[in-house]
Amino acid sequence: MSFAKDGIGTLLAILFLAVIFSAGLLINRSWLMKGFVVLVWVFVLFSLYFFRDPERTIPTDENAIVSPADGKVIIIRKVKENTYLKGPATQVSIFMSVFDVHVNRIPMSGTVGYFKYYPGKFLPAYREKASTDNEQTVIGIENDRSKILFKQIAGIIARRVVCHVREGYHVTKGKRFGMIKFGSRADVFLPENVEVNVRLKQKVKGGESIIGKIKSEN
Known about the structure:
By secondary structure, the chain is α+β, with helices and mostly antiparallel strands. The protein has helices at about 10-25, 30-50, 130-135, and strands at about 65, 70-80, 85-95, 105, 110-120, 135-140, 145-155, 160-165, 170, 175-180, 185-190, 195, 205, 210-215. Helices cover about 20% and strands about 35% of the residues. β6 (about 135-140) and β7 form a beta hairpin. α1 runs antiparallel to α2. The longest helix is centred in the first third of the chain and has 20 residues, at about 30-50.
Protein backbone atom coordinates (compact mmCIF):
# COMPACT_ATOMS: atom_id res chain seq x y z
CA MET A 1 0.00 0.00 0.00
CA SER A 2 1.36 3.38 -0.97
CA PHE A 3 0.59 6.61 0.86
CA ALA A 4 -0.36 10.07 -0.37
CA LYS A 5 2.72 12.29 -0.72
CA ASP A 6 0.74 15.21 0.70
CA GLY A 7 0.08 13.19 3.84
CA ILE A 8 3.65 12.03 4.59
CA GLY A 9 4.45 15.07 6.75
CA THR A 10 1.28 14.60 8.80
CA LEU A 11 1.96 10.88 9.20
CA LEU A 12 5.50 11.50 10.41
CA ALA A 13 4.28 14.08 12.93
CA ILE A 14 1.63 11.68 14.26
CA LEU A 15 4.17 8.83 14.51
CA PHE A 16 6.64 11.11 16.32
CA LEU A 17 4.01 12.08 18.89
CA ALA A 18 3.02 8.43 19.34
CA VAL A 19 6.63 7.49 20.09
CA ILE A 20 6.98 10.37 22.57
CA PHE A 21 3.81 9.39 24.42
CA SER A 22 4.87 5.74 24.42
CA ALA A 23 8.22 6.74 25.94
CA GLY A 24 6.23 8.41 28.72
CA LEU A 25 5.31 4.93 29.94
CA LEU A 26 8.85 4.70 31.32
CA ILE A 27 7.87 7.41 33.80
CA ASN A 28 4.13 6.87 34.24
CA ARG A 29 2.81 3.31 33.96
CA SER A 30 -0.68 4.02 35.26
CA TRP A 31 -3.68 2.39 33.59
CA LEU A 32 -4.83 5.84 32.50
CA MET A 33 -1.53 6.48 30.70
CA LYS A 34 -1.54 3.01 29.15
CA GLY A 35 -5.08 3.54 27.85
CA PHE A 36 -4.11 6.91 26.40
CA VAL A 37 -1.12 5.42 24.58
CA VAL A 38 -3.33 2.67 23.12
CA LEU A 39 -5.70 5.34 21.78
CA VAL A 40 -2.76 7.22 20.28
CA TRP A 41 -1.61 4.14 18.38
CA VAL A 42 -5.18 3.43 17.22
CA PHE A 43 -5.14 6.95 15.74
CA VAL A 44 -1.79 6.16 14.09
CA LEU A 45 -3.32 3.09 12.42
CA PHE A 46 -6.35 5.11 11.31
CA SER A 47 -4.06 7.81 9.85
CA LEU A 48 -2.13 5.20 7.87
CA TYR A 49 -5.47 3.96 6.53
CA PHE A 50 -6.72 7.49 5.80
CA PHE A 51 -3.64 8.54 3.80
CA ARG A 52 -3.60 5.42 1.62
CA ASP A 53 -3.18 6.07 -2.11
CA PRO A 54 -4.19 3.05 -4.21
CA GLU A 55 -3.55 2.88 -7.94
CA ARG A 56 -6.52 3.29 -10.26
CA THR A 57 -7.40 2.11 -13.76
CA ILE A 58 -8.06 5.27 -15.78
CA PRO A 59 -10.69 4.99 -18.58
CA THR A 60 -9.14 5.48 -22.02
CA ASP A 61 -12.29 6.90 -23.63
CA GLU A 62 -11.43 10.53 -24.49
CA ASN A 63 -15.06 11.55 -23.95
CA ALA A 64 -15.23 10.08 -20.45
CA ILE A 65 -15.06 12.46 -17.49
CA VAL A 66 -14.01 10.74 -14.27
CA SER A 67 -14.75 11.48 -10.65
CA PRO A 68 -12.18 13.74 -8.96
CA ALA A 69 -12.72 11.97 -5.64
CA ASP A 70 -13.82 8.81 -3.85
CA GLY A 71 -17.15 8.98 -2.07
CA LYS A 72 -20.92 8.97 -2.45
CA VAL A 73 -22.94 11.07 -4.89
CA ILE A 74 -25.21 13.26 -2.74
CA ILE A 75 -26.45 15.85 -5.26
CA ILE A 76 -27.33 15.79 -8.96
CA ARG A 77 -29.16 18.90 -10.10
CA LYS A 78 -29.47 21.47 -12.85
CA VAL A 79 -27.87 24.83 -12.09
CA LYS A 80 -26.61 27.94 -13.82
CA GLU A 81 -22.82 28.11 -13.53
CA ASN A 82 -21.66 31.71 -13.97
CA THR A 83 -18.02 31.44 -12.88
CA TYR A 84 -16.46 29.56 -15.79
CA LEU A 85 -19.01 27.66 -17.86
CA LYS A 86 -21.21 30.77 -18.15
CA GLY A 87 -24.43 28.86 -18.68
CA PRO A 88 -26.65 25.89 -17.73
CA ALA A 89 -24.86 22.95 -16.11
CA THR A 90 -25.42 19.83 -14.05
CA GLN A 91 -23.89 19.84 -10.57
CA VAL A 92 -22.65 16.48 -9.27
CA SER A 93 -21.59 16.58 -5.61
CA ILE A 94 -19.52 13.81 -4.00
CA PHE A 95 -19.30 13.47 -0.22
CA MET A 96 -16.01 12.06 1.08
CA SER A 97 -16.24 10.48 4.53
CA VAL A 98 -13.17 9.95 6.70
CA PHE A 99 -13.13 6.33 5.50
CA ASP A 100 -12.75 7.23 1.80
CA VAL A 101 -9.49 7.72 -0.10
CA HIS A 102 -8.84 11.47 -0.05
CA VAL A 103 -6.36 11.81 -2.92
CA ASN A 104 -7.97 13.91 -5.68
CA ARG A 105 -7.56 13.22 -9.40
CA ILE A 106 -8.02 15.25 -12.59
CA PRO A 107 -11.49 14.60 -14.14
CA MET A 108 -10.62 15.52 -17.75
CA SER A 109 -7.47 16.12 -19.79
CA GLY A 110 -6.93 19.67 -20.99
CA THR A 111 -5.69 23.07 -19.89
CA VAL A 112 -6.53 24.73 -16.58
CA GLY A 113 -8.37 27.84 -17.71
CA TYR A 114 -9.48 28.97 -14.26
CA PHE A 115 -8.13 28.66 -10.72
CA LYS A 116 -9.27 30.41 -7.56
CA TYR A 117 -8.87 29.79 -3.84
CA TYR A 118 -11.66 31.00 -1.57
CA PRO A 119 -11.28 31.15 2.22
CA GLY A 120 -14.52 30.42 4.01
CA LYS A 121 -16.42 28.50 6.65
CA PHE A 122 -16.15 24.85 7.70
CA LEU A 123 -19.76 23.71 7.57
CA PRO A 124 -20.46 19.95 7.40
CA ALA A 125 -19.56 18.96 3.83
CA TYR A 126 -22.91 17.27 3.14
CA ARG A 127 -24.85 20.52 3.69
CA GLU A 128 -25.98 22.39 0.58
CA LYS A 129 -24.44 25.72 1.65
CA ALA A 130 -21.01 24.07 1.94
CA SER A 131 -20.71 24.37 -1.86
CA THR A 132 -20.73 28.17 -1.65
CA ASP A 133 -19.76 29.06 1.92
CA ASN A 134 -16.91 26.69 2.81
CA GLU A 135 -13.20 27.11 2.16
CA GLN A 136 -12.50 25.75 -1.32
CA THR A 137 -10.45 25.73 -4.49
CA VAL A 138 -12.28 26.15 -7.79
CA ILE A 139 -10.70 24.74 -10.97
CA GLY A 140 -11.83 25.00 -14.57
CA ILE A 141 -10.46 22.73 -17.33
CA GLU A 142 -11.09 22.94 -21.06
CA ASN A 143 -10.11 21.05 -24.18
CA ASP A 144 -11.30 20.97 -27.80
CA ARG A 145 -14.37 18.87 -26.84
CA SER A 146 -15.72 20.50 -23.70
CA LYS A 147 -15.00 22.42 -20.50
CA ILE A 148 -15.82 21.60 -16.86
CA LEU A 149 -15.55 23.23 -13.45
CA PHE A 150 -14.91 21.41 -10.19
CA LYS A 151 -14.28 22.27 -6.54
CA GLN A 152 -12.32 20.89 -3.61
CA ILE A 153 -14.41 21.84 -0.58
CA ALA A 154 -13.26 21.70 3.04
CA GLY A 155 -15.58 20.28 5.69
CA ILE A 156 -16.19 20.51 9.42
CA ILE A 157 -13.15 18.28 10.10
CA ALA A 158 -11.24 18.74 6.84
CA ARG A 159 -9.53 22.12 7.18
CA ARG A 160 -6.69 21.68 4.76
CA VAL A 161 -7.19 21.68 1.01
CA VAL A 162 -4.08 20.79 -1.00
CA CYS A 163 -3.98 21.63 -4.72
CA HIS A 164 -0.96 21.48 -7.03
CA VAL A 165 -2.46 22.90 -10.24
CA ARG A 166 -2.78 26.50 -11.31
CA GLU A 167 -4.16 28.43 -14.26
CA GLY A 168 -2.31 27.58 -17.48
CA TYR A 169 -1.24 24.09 -16.41
CA HIS A 170 -1.73 21.21 -18.86
CA VAL A 171 -3.32 18.30 -16.99
CA THR A 172 -4.07 14.64 -17.73
CA LYS A 173 -7.22 12.75 -16.76
CA GLY A 174 -6.78 10.54 -13.72
CA LYS A 175 -3.53 12.10 -12.52
CA ARG A 176 -3.24 13.07 -8.87
CA PHE A 177 -3.39 16.81 -8.20
CA GLY A 178 -4.00 17.17 -4.47
CA MET A 179 -6.15 16.05 -1.55
CA ILE A 180 -8.44 17.23 1.22
CA LYS A 181 -7.51 16.06 4.70
CA PHE A 182 -10.02 14.35 7.02
CA GLY A 183 -13.47 14.37 5.42
CA SER A 184 -14.69 16.70 2.69
CA ARG A 185 -16.58 17.14 -0.57
CA ALA A 186 -16.00 17.59 -4.30
CA ASP A 187 -18.42 19.34 -6.67
CA VAL A 188 -18.27 18.93 -10.45
CA PHE A 189 -20.19 21.16 -12.89
CA LEU A 190 -20.84 19.55 -16.27
CA PRO A 191 -22.01 21.62 -19.28
CA GLU A 192 -24.97 20.68 -21.45
CA ASN A 193 -22.87 18.72 -23.93
CA VAL A 194 -21.98 16.20 -21.19
CA GLU A 195 -24.35 13.35 -20.32
CA VAL A 196 -24.38 12.52 -16.60
CA ASN A 197 -23.36 8.92 -15.96
CA VAL A 198 -24.02 8.52 -12.21
CA ARG A 199 -27.03 8.34 -9.91
CA LEU A 200 -27.77 9.57 -6.40
CA LYS A 201 -26.17 7.59 -3.54
CA GLN A 202 -23.81 5.84 -5.97
CA LYS A 203 -20.31 5.16 -4.66
CA VAL A 204 -17.57 6.42 -6.98
CA LYS A 205 -13.78 6.13 -7.16
CA GLY A 206 -11.52 9.03 -8.05
CA GLY A 207 -9.85 8.71 -11.45
CA GLU A 208 -11.75 5.52 -12.27
CA SER A 209 -15.54 6.01 -12.07
CA ILE A 210 -17.05 7.77 -15.09
CA ILE A 211 -19.40 10.54 -13.92
CA GLY A 212 -20.18 11.91 -17.38
CA LYS A 213 -19.55 11.49 -21.11
CA ILE A 214 -19.12 14.22 -23.68
CA LYS A 215 -21.86 13.82 -26.29
CA SER A 216 -20.84 13.07 -29.85
CA GLU A 217 -21.16 16.02 -32.23
CA ASN A 218 -23.06 13.72 -34.57
